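From the pipeline queue, job 12 of 40. The input is one protein chain; the requested action is below.

Action: predict structure.
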Amino acid sequence: MRVWGGRASPAFPFFLKPRSAEGWLLQGLACREQGDLAGATQAFRKVLRLDKDHADAHLNLGSCLGLLGETDEALRHFARAAALAPRSPVVLLSQAQAFLDAGLPHRALAAADKALALAPGLVPALVLRAHALARLDHYTAARAAWRAAVAQAPEAPRVLNDAATFLMQDNRLSEAVALQQKARALAPDDRLIRRNLITVLMTEGQVEAAEAEVRAWIADIPDDAWAWRLLGDVLVRAGRFEAGRAALEKAWDLAPADDSIAVALTTTGRMGPDVPAADRILAREAEARAQGGLSVDLAYAAGKVHDDRKEWDAAFAAYSVANQTKGRLQPFDADAHDDEVAALIDTFTPALFERLRGVGSPSEVPVFVVGLPRSGTTLVEQIIASHPEAGGAGELTHFPRLEAELPWLTGDGTQAYPACVAGLRPETLAPFTAAYLETLAHFGGAGARRVVDKLPNNFLRLGLIALAFPRARVVFCQRDLADTCLSLHFQNFMGAHAYRHDLRTLGRYARASLRLKAHWETVLPLPLLTLDYAALVADPETESRRLLDFVGLSWDPAVLAFHQRRVQPVATASRWQVRQPITTRSVARWRAYESHLGPLLETLAD
């Protein structure tokens, strides 16, 4: 079958009048090759007027419509092409991609499997199968599909890159680094592959290797703003804030319209009157307002500058613009979240824990630091990880992925979490706990008796954690709810935490977290320590001694010098704060914004 996307098609000869279906098909292929989707679409429609059963025309028209966002019509043409050519892998692959783009991963998987049945080992089908399985949260099967694709195409840089991206998200960091390095060697000029290699190196904690890679990029292309931006990110994560700020300023000089660089600059320290980059952010904010459009990134950046300069009203106004915009893009269903919390409370009972006793690992290495984001979880992790017999792994995604995949691991994927927990067996959890402990050993280093996983919203998964590691320890970080919520409302998280954009919804979410915490304190069969942020910053030594005693470590004064520690990069929003000595500056911060927080305070008081 003839389909665009292969060899370049010649331009349609000016002397040939495309009166026939075949002529219009060639016209469409030529237009598509030249990037003229409208012209290609028109030509393929003319083919179908002349021959309504022309399989190639249905296939190519569907492909063009998919690129134009006309998914429903594209799917109809793919279905007709499949009916006309039921044994064509090309048709099935196009159909699978369209299903995937339309958010129908089950149907995409079925089409990819049909293509593989006709052409075993077909790499594009393996890749589409892997993507569809990942969309379905069937990570174990997706992992196998990616490995099969790499085995079939070991010299294809983009296949290696995409497999490495999945494996990084799947917490298989060493494997991801190896694949990404190979992709980089095969395609040394591919900027996306270069960027992804730097990202995975940083994720694995190879700070020096990541910096060397990005500096080599800059040596090759000195005016590449993307490279300078990456260098800034690497340096900031490593705690080298002045150098990071200089690199980011260079990136902004090269790409002055990229407002995401402005946000990155605000992570390099306080944006006081003596910081030229801060003045530049405010100047750009004023220019954007005058032109009638303030981007989300620039609004967050300006809010941070105003906040650091104690210009409270201006700060709240800027943050409000950012939250209103993101709130429209990321709606949050507070009623559904309350139902999820209720389901967790109903599911995780003493009877369940008793019935499933023994399904997990006896390891005492894991320490889970949880709580609402911005409640001090990064600070607590850094204190523990500064102990010579401990380590910090950052915010691991193992348990969110286990939660998502559990319906597949305990059945056929149809019984949702948390109800599917009842089907847990030792053999279900054994591969997961082994891989998790391997990750902790990687980040903790040889001899680490305790390693911290500080993903804050694991407070939602403490029941699952207790089943997987019944001898683990949980530190629940607690901070004044108004302070916590204000900090959440002001934080520019990348993609999660949609509940924070609306003040009333944010208050409901915070209250639900306390309701769930009270349940865990009643039923959880593993030790849980509540650590108050205000108490910790007021008396660091007393609270740190209590913390170490709880996790089973002897006292070591090194934990109070955590801000001098440079072993592990810090990727969380608190990357600057945890490099500073402990202060009480953030206690009762909400009072400066009290006049703006009525909806939040009313909700918290209900």
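Job complete. The radius of gyration is 27 Å.
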